[in-house]
Design a protein that fits this description.
28% of the residues are buried. The protein has two domains: 115 residues, Roll (CBS-domain), CATH 3.10.580; 97 residues, ACT domain (Alpha-Beta Plaits, 2-Layer Sandwich), CATH 3.30.70. The chain is of the alpha+beta class and 219 residues long. The protein is built from seven helices and nine strands; from the N terminus they run βαββααββαβαββαβα.
Length: 219
Amino acid sequence: MNARDAIHAATPALQADDTVEDALGLLMEHHVGHLPVVTEDGTLAGLVSETRLMEADGPDTTVGDLVAVRPMHVAPEEHIFNAARTMVQHDLSVVPVATPKGRYLGLIRRHDIFDKFAQMLSTQQAGAIVALEVDARDYALAQLIHLIEQNDGKVLAVASESPEQSTDKIRVTLKLNVKDTARIRHVLEHNGYHVVASFGEEEEELEELVEEFVRYLEV
């Protein structure tokens, strides 16, 4: 899934000659902490933050005078993971999407990133989530999936976190197509996987977890 597919067309960009007062109004209306600034010819000039706007000389200051020299953005063909990494690295609430020549195409909100990740991780499908840890030298995805399928389960989605140190364990999160994971968890533990937690063995519990995470992202 690429960045172009996650653009949120309803959230507008600012024009370089918009005032600080107008910009703050749009930030409040669309519940974001940043907005892109675009020139008359559709070129991305940069991003402006609520903090930067609040520090401006006055409400009539134009936002074109406040943007950074280097516009932060992702290309439309980049994977959505890159958009998420850019947001995290620079603590952004939105990230602009622009062509290599700087033509502005739209923006991606933090909430949009979560929605796409939720789709990729099959959160809307019935089933449980199992979180586990394993030594890096013992981790083999094919073997892990084989163990689960041998016990009447199917992996709908998988996400892994690489260890910070070579001696740390890899953390793996699995979305399965079954709600009762007792047998699968027992087999995984027997084969050297440490099951940290399981969630959503009742569908309502999983929906509550997802809704709670969405509320956290919108704070």
